């Protein structure tokens, strides 16, 4: 099977399972999405969705967030991983949005990545989900599955992103990003996974990887 054939089959399966994949983080606009994505680093979406409505009831705009004290933000998001650092970044990025972007989230990769606490993955999520710009953010699920499916060598998230962008048509990137995340959570866990019974791994993974995964402790 060629890479193009494999990619097409993966798309067919994911479209059947997740025809309209929802954005997992609760938000109302680009700013609240940006905040939610910043909060989601090393934290589950469920935890972020528990905390973010409380934060947004206090500050739903960059202006309001910039006026909050770091300690107040930290108290609200204290159950989220890396809360001390994230609270400082949320106040700082909000102030920067006010001072440099008239209180608006810029639809620009470079400008987003210049904000405190915003890396390439976070910027890619915002560009894709808030502005509809084709992007392929790579999280741990996508990085793992791309390697399992022999679509990338798995050596770095940067390489995985490049490989996936080559494998799939640009028009599919935004949906595929979400579909692969959902598939990883629901069908393809990191541990205790029988690749031979997986709807995709069973035929997309190499025989060598199937053997390696089978030998891992469950």
Describe, in plain words, how this protein is organized in 3D.
The chain is mainly α and 218 residues long. The protein folds into 2 domains: 3-20 and 137-215, Endonuclease Iii, domain 2; 30-131, Endonuclease III, domain 1. It is 62% helix and 0% strand. It has 13 helices and no strands. α1 packs across α11 (173-186) and α9 (140-148) crosses α10. The chain starts with a helix and ends with a helix. The model has no long low-confidence stretch (mean pLDDT 95).
Task: Draw up the topology in text.
Blueprint: H1 3-17, H2 30-39, H3 45-58, H4 62-67, H5 70-76, H6 83-101, H7 109-113, H8 120-131, H9 140-148, H10 157-167, H11 173-186, H12 201-204, H13 207-215
Helix pairs in contact: 1-11, 2-3, 2-8, 5-6, 9-10, 9-11
Could you provide a short overview of the structure?
This protein is an all-alpha fold and 218 residues long. It has 13 helices and no strands. It folds into 2 domains: 3-20 and 137-215, Helix-hairpin-Helix base-excision DNA repair enzymes (C-terminal) (Endonuclease Iii, domain 2, Orthogonal Bundle); 30-131, Endonuclease III, domain 1 (Orthogonal Bundle).
List keywords for this structure.
218 residues, single chain, Endonuclease Iii, domain 2, mainly alpha
- In sequence order, what are the helices and strands, one letter per element? HHHHHHHHHHHHH
CATH 4th-level superfamily of the largest domain: Hypothetical protein, domain 2
Q: Termini, distance in Å?
A: 30 Å
Q: Largest sheet, described in full?
A: none
Structural class: mainly alpha
Q: What's the CATH architecture name of the largest domain?
A: Orthogonal Bundle
- Identify the CATH class of the largest domain: Mainly Alpha
Could you name the CATH topology of the largest domain?
Endonuclease III, domain 1
Using only C-alpha atoms, the radius of gyration works out to 19 Å
Mean pLDDT: 95
The total count of strands amounts to: 0
Q: List low-pLDDT spans.
A: none
Shape: elongated
Q: How many separate domains make up the residues?
A: 2
Number of helical elements = 13
Residue fraction in strands:
under 5%
